[in-house]
Amino acid sequence: MSDKRISFKVDGEVQGVNFRSYTQKQARSIGVTGFVTNASDGTVQGEAQGSADQLKEFVQHLNKGPSAASVSGVEHNEISSKSGENSFNVHQRHFSSSESSKIQKFFEKKETELVRRTPAAWPHHEFSPEQMNAVTVAHRETQTRADKAALVAVKILRWGLDVATGYKHKQGAMTEEKYMIRNVFLESVAGVPGMVAGMIRHLNSMRRMKRDNGWIETLLEESYNERMHLLTFLKMSKPGPFMRLMVLGAQGIWCNALFFAYLISPRTVHRFVGYLEEEAVYTYTRQIEDLDAGRLPKWEKLQAPDIAVDYWKMPEGHRTMRDLLLYIRADESKHREVNHTLGNLNQKEDPNPYASEYKDSSKPHPSKDLAYTKPTGWERHEII
Ligand SMILES: [Fe+2]
Ligand SMILES: [Fe+2]
User: How far is the CA of 206 from the centre of ligand 1 (A)?
Assistant: First the structure.
């Protein structure tokens, strides 16, 4: 039995209605291979391969579509079949269509025979739209000499980041591509401190044979969250060789510098990360503002990639680039609060306020979600 392959195009109300995941589900249950993607002209397009009967059934499903869709027409043409394809995938839409074939192969999920799915190890603490919209830019005033040193270090790093990513402060100077480069670099830097701090505390606890009081998990979870930010952006834009080199260099220097800094003064490092996260909230707030002002047209209809929809459990109808930026900004605001708070504590003795239960739980206290927020961090006397 020889396989046939078709290219297809579905017209109608077909984007933003779950059409691609519906198509994938049908294709997999029928046993058809290929891919589906949202095209920039508003249609859903793709290719499918299987026996004549399988393809006939598949096209019937395309004509029907998921309940939220309204299909006005399906075109399909036979094309030459491909060998070596063994699954049916959803492809994301990208900024430049000419590059899309290269990008689609960029860390594509590998299907295996027995594994159904691999969910996030640290499920995200869900945020409501009101909570995410309430996130604001904030700054903690410096109080000690160490605070001042941390702030100066962030200013220097920020300057370096601006130069490396070609960041311009002038309104309208930033394009979607420039922001994306900045975000990739920023997130690759942001994913390091939590892991380094968590590792040092882990080793410390074992070496000194003492409890850690719950800090390690929060720190590791933070770096996990940052890596999800990075992976999400990477799904949307593939960095060039220069960016990869920058990330590599930054990691080599940055990771080691943080390691020694955390050994010397963990409090200062937490304060430093708190200030860094202030910048992150600021950067994402600017992107949301630029998007709302119509300065980033390519992002207006862009959908969040599946990896993001899964991780943040983004509800149907709230899966645009703007929604994604709201989620990420809210995460950054939490990192800002967590690190400023940790920077206020006794590093050796105090329990992690984000992993603790409070005697009076009706009073506001630190939480992993956005139930209670304190952008400049909780003071020690308020929580310990
Ligand atoms: Fe981040
Ligand atoms: Fe962050």
Answer: 29
